[in-house]
């Protein structure tokens, strides 16, 4: 028998005081569109979390924790329906049943958890199913681990952090594990339908109209012939040196470490493409509404970032990149259909489609760096500890995707995926190592952007 197949199932009935329906939030609409565009591969957006069950917990304690979590957070008892006019709506159930899969692990609970994580993450959620799957891994019939798989339509990373913390506290038996009141996605819909939302939408439309009128219509005007296939490898660089350098630069210049990385990426892309203006899609958390910080939902929307890359120094570019990124994040809360119309109108005026297919995801934290004091020599000597590898294949639905993760001050991880027509596979490693080298060099001394090709050995 397949050792990942469930050995049993247990049902959890829930009953909550609220049952209601309404439109999707702006961020949910964005994600629902991404789901619709990528089906059946929308499993790409799934997230998983693995929890160690406290020693004294039994199956009944786990199911009780799941029940209370689902009853508290409406996102986990929400399904999506589409009207006859094609409009998606969310329906929050007041009661229902969750089915938890039981998997007996024996002595290899870690190996089974890893296999289940891959299996569950690789199955997309349908609109009419609960957006949370729960698997309980047992040893001799007693719970050892609990695996959550969550649809991105229900929770982004911050929302999943909120739910995960609550679940851990529930398993621990804490009485105040859940808040007395909590903001829900449909409460967010009400805010977006209010004058507050109208003003935010108007500001966003004005910003996007100004910005799309000035950015290049594409970041990659010159392309190689199409490469057969729909998948490409991902290049991954784990760099202690970049982690140290980004934190040093962030602290010295008053920016986030991720902002320093973004400047390095912009310098390289400008050098690679010849564009003196670099336009990228960032991702805004959009949790500024009171109560939204502790909401279990998806709030992330794309932000349009644009920065001019002049004949100036790299440290000047870091400062201007930081300012431009804050401006982009400030105007990333909007109704997706309005912004879609803005881009479409601009494309018609310019006589060519505006491509917004180059994106940067920053998971390294959003706060400014705390001062750290490694010497330039310490940063430089960390370079040999960098490790490059190729990760799982990536579907080519974007031209370029750079992901920043890890911990500034210790190690950063850069993952880059691209359409080979714009950045061939051999250049993936050179690109991420170029980011690293620019950051490390800037700690030693500032330099002119015209020196980038010589400093990195790239794109000459």
UniProtKB/TrEMBL annotation:
Superkingdom classification of source: Bacteria
Gene3D superfamilies: Chloramphenicol acetyltransferase-like domain, Nonribosomal peptide synthetase, condensation domain
Pfam families: Condensation
Domain Condensation: 24-340
Protein name, entry field: Condensation domain-containing protein
Species the sequence originates in: Nonomuraea purpurea
């Amino acid at each position: 028998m397949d050792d990942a197949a469930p050995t049993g199932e247990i049902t959890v009935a829930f009953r909550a005081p609220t049952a209601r329906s309404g439109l999707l939030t702006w961020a949910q609409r964005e994600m629902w569109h991404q789901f619709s565009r990528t089906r059946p591969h929308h499993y790409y957006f799934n997230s998983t979390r693995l929890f160690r069950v406290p020693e004294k917990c039994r199956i009944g304690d786990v199911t009780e924790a799941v029940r209370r979590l689902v009853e508290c957070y409406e996102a986990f008892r929400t399904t999506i329906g589409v009207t006859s006019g094609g409009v998606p709506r969310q329906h929050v159930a007041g009661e229902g049943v969750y089915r938890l899969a039981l998997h007996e692990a024996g002595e290899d609970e870690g190996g089974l958890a890893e296999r289940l994580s891959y299996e569950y993450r690789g199955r997309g959620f349908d609109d009419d199913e609960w957006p949370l799957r729960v698997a309980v891994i047992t040893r001799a019939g007693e719970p050892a681990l609990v695996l959550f798989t969550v649809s991105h339509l229900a929770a982004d990373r911050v929302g999943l952090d909120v739910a995960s913390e609550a679940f851990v506290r529930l398993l621990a038996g804490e009485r105040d594990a859940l808040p007395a009141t909590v903001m829900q996605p449909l409460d967010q819909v009400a805010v977006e339908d209010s004058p507050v939302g109208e003003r935010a939408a108007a500001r966003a439309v004005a910003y996007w109209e100004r910005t799309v009128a000035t950015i290049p219509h594409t970041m990659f005007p010159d392309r190689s012939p199409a490469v057969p296939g729909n998948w490409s490898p991902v290049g991954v660089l784990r760099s202690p040196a970049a982690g140290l350098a980004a934190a040093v630069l962030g602290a010295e210049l008053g920016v986030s470490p991720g902002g320093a990385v973004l400047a390095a990426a912009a310098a390289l892309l400008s050098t690679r493409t010849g564009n003196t203006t670099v336009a990228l899609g960032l991702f805004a958390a959009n949790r500024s509404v009171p109560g939204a910080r502790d909401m279990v939902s998806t709030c992330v929307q794309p932000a349009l970032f644009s920065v001019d890359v002049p004949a100036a120094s790299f440290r000047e570019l870091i400062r201007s990149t930081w300012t431009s990124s804050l401006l982009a994040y400030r105007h990333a809360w909007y109704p997706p259909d309005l912004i879609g119309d803005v881009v479409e109108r601009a494309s018609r005026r310019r006589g060519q489609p505006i491509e917004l297919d180059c994106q940067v995801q920053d998971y390294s934290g959003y706060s400014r760096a705390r001062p750290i004091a490694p010497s330039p020599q310490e940063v430089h000597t960390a370079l040999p500890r960098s490790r490059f590898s190729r990760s799982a294949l990536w579907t080519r639905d974007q031209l370029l995707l750079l992901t920043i993760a890890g911990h500034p001050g210790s190690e950063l991880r850069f993952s880059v995926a691209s359409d080979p027509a714009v950045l061939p596979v051999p250049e993936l490693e050179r690109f991420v190592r170029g980011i690293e080298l620019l950051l490390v060099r800037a700690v030693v001394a500032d330099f002119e952007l015209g020196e980038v090709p010589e400093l990195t050995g790239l794109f000459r």
